[in-house]
Amino acid sequence: MFRLSAVIRERFPMHRVTGESDRFFLWVDAVGGYWVCLSDEVTLGQHIGAGEADIPLLGDLSKKHAKIRRDGEGYLIEAIREVWVDGRSVTRIAGLSHGNVIQLGHSVQLVFRRPHALSATARLDFASSHRTQPSVDAILLMADSCVLGPQRHSHIVCRGWRDEVVLYRHDERLYCRAAPGTEIDGVRQTGGRGAITRNSRIAGDSFSLSLEEM
């Protein structure tokens, strides 16, 4: 049920801005920092510098320890080295569901979440003390959109906010949708939406956040 045919992949390729990284940092003021991955497939492994995994972790792991792949509306994890999901050993590939605990090696643990029913974006939370380098609060595997707001089903829960802010992908570009009057890179958006870059600053009446290119 998780497989996506090669024909569909050719017709609907991964959205990506040519020449820009498939990863960036998202810093949400008074909330936290997040590692955002746009690629359909990411590699998790030990932080060792050049040639590192897409998601480098400070832990006793192999250079390339596991892969997580978005396949259609679902997610798969591929074990390159020792991987467990909810305590069960993954010998090759396993599907991921909301709430699954992923263990890499003997001690690195992540919780896989799909908080928003209308978005294929997933989130990896740290269940052990291990972190990325640089350190962030969580990892977002961004598909079509990323929802920030006060609701508990948001990808990033921002309890003090009045309204939602949505980052989304369209025609190989990133956009932001928020309340009218939101500023993007110092320019007021009368319609509440506009294109953003990997280094944009977004601010409204009750929030502010910034993107940082890796």
What is the helix tally? 1
Poorly predicted residue ranges: 1-19
- List SSEs in N-to-C order: HEEEEEEEEEEEEEEEEEEEEEE
Instruction: Going across the biggest sheet, name each strand in turn.
Output: 8-7-10-11-12-13-2-1-22-21-18-19
Please describe the biggest sheet, giving its number of strands, its sense, and whether it closes into a barrel. Answer: 12 strands, mixed
Structural class: mainly beta
Question: Count the strands?
Answer: 22
Whole-angstrom Rg: 17 Å
**Distance separating the two termini:** 34 Å
Global outline: elongated
Mean pLDDT: 89
Approximate strand percentage: 35-45%
Query: How helix-rich are the residues, as a percent range?
Result: under 10%
What structural keywords apply?
214 residues, 12-stranded mixed beta sheet, 45% strand, elongated, mainly beta, 3% helix, 22 strands, disordered N terminus
Write a structural description.
The protein is mainly beta. The protein is 3% helix and 45% strand. It has one helix at residues 6-11; strands at 23-28, 32-37, 41-46, 55-57, 66-71, 74-79, 83-85, 88-89, 93-96, 101-104, 108-113, 122-126, 138-141, 145-149, 156-157, 165-170, 173-177, 183-184, 187-188, 193-196, 201-203, 208-213. The strands form 3 sheets. The protein has a 12-stranded mixed beta sheet with strand order 8-7-10-11-12-13-2-1-22-21-18-19, with no helix packed on it. Strands 4-3-5-6-9 form a 5-stranded mixed beta sheet, with no helix packed on it. The protein has a 5-stranded mixed beta sheet with strand order 15-14-16-17-20, with no helix packed on it. It is elongated and about 50 Å long. The relative contact order is 0.16.
